[in-house]
């Protein structure tokens, strides 16, 4: 959601100026990650992190936060289907109105006079964009209905698995092998590995408190991280993310 205010310009007309941008997931505002985590995390890398690597890392953390919000604030099938149906219906009605118009239509000509340059509201462009959006919304509605009938459920472990795998890729790219010891032979808690310290620091300094996982103790964190790494070693392929692509020699920007 973008909050705006009206401000009078030099020509006497009023412009909309953004005041604050708030992202929502399932109608819940997405909390900011803040900036404190950057310094705490960068200190854990002997050679530091480039601005690009920090940007990638922030996107990985933001994805985890968004997915945790989806899980902790689920939307019921009834509400989701109602919202998708309402959007699909509204788009079809709007597209029907647009399809009735021609570029020479007096109504459309009035609309174009309010836009500079008018090419941004060229009728074929608007019609094509609305048509794609309408088709995509209808497809999303059909998929949601199929998933409901199939009994699809959220995978509550997926955000955690993806986060640890992505961080492991970054750690191996910058430092070395990602490891995590559970306990010593006498069952005493093992000292957290450098990789576990990284995951712990990100979870406690970047992730909002109510969305954190496995932070009861560093030993609990070590066990949870170890389980993910063992899962990857036993044949569960890591998801391909930006750091894995760099490790494999793929430029995530050019895809080459």
Characterization of the model:
The protein is mainly α and 256 residues long. Strand 3 and strand 4 form a beta hairpin. The protein is 54% helix and 7% strand. The protein folds into two domains: 31-73 and 155-256, no CATH class; 77-150. The model has no long low-confidence stretch (mean pLDDT 82).
Please give the structural blueprint.
Blueprint: E1 2-8, E2 14-21, E3 24-25, E4 28-29, H1 36-42, H2 51-72, H3 77-99, H4 106-113, H5 123-150, H6 158-174, H7 194-205, H8 218-233, H9 242-247
Antiparallel strand pairs: 1-2, 3-4
The tally of helices reads: 9
Strand content: 5-15%
Going across the biggest sheet, name each strand in turn: 1-2
Rg: 24 Å
**Mean pLDDT metric:** 82
Question: What is the helix fraction of residues, given as a range?
Answer: 40-55%
The parts where pLDDT drops under 50 for at least 5 residues are none
How far is the first residue's CA from the last residue's CA?
36 Å
Instruction: Please provide the ordered H/E string of secondary-structure elements.
Output: EEEEHHHHHHHHH
Number of strands: 4
Largest sheet: 2 strands, antiparallel
Which shape, going by the Cα principal axes?
A: elongated
Q: How many separate structural domains?
A: 2
Instruction: Supply the helix-strand structural class.
Output: mainly alpha
């Amino acid at each position: 959601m973008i909050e705006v205010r009206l401000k009078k310009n030099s020509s006497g007309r009023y412009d909309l100026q953004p005041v604050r941008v708030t992202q929502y997931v399932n109608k819940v505002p997405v909390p900011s990650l803040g900036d404190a985590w950057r310094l705490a995390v960068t200190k854990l890398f002997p050679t530091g992190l480039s601005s690009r690597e920090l940007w990638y890392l922030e996107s990985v953390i933001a994805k985890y936060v968004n997915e945790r919000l989806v899980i902790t604030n689920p939307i019921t099938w009834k509400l989701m289907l109602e919202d998708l149906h309402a959007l699909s219906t509204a788009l079809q009605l709007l597209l029907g109105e647009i399809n009735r118009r021609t570029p020479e239509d007096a109504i459309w000509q009035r609309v174009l006079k309010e836009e500079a340059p008018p090419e941004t509201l060229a009728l074929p462009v608007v019609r094509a964009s609305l048509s794609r959006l309408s088709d995509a919304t209808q497809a999303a509605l059909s998929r949601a209905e199929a998933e409901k009938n199939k009994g699809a459920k959220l995978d509550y472990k997926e955000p955690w698995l993806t986060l640890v795998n992505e961080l492991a890729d970054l750690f191996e790219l910058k430092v070395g092998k990602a490891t995590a010891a559970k306990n010593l032979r006498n069952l005493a808690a093992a000292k957290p590995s450098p990789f576990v310290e990284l995951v712990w620091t990100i979870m406690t300094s970047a992730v909002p408190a109510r969305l954190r996982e496995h932070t009861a103790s560093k030993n609990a964190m070590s066990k949870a991280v170890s389980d993910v790494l063992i899962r990857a070693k036993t044949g569960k392929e890591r998801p391909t993310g930006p750091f894995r692509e760099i490790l494999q020699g793929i430029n995530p920007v050019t895809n080459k």
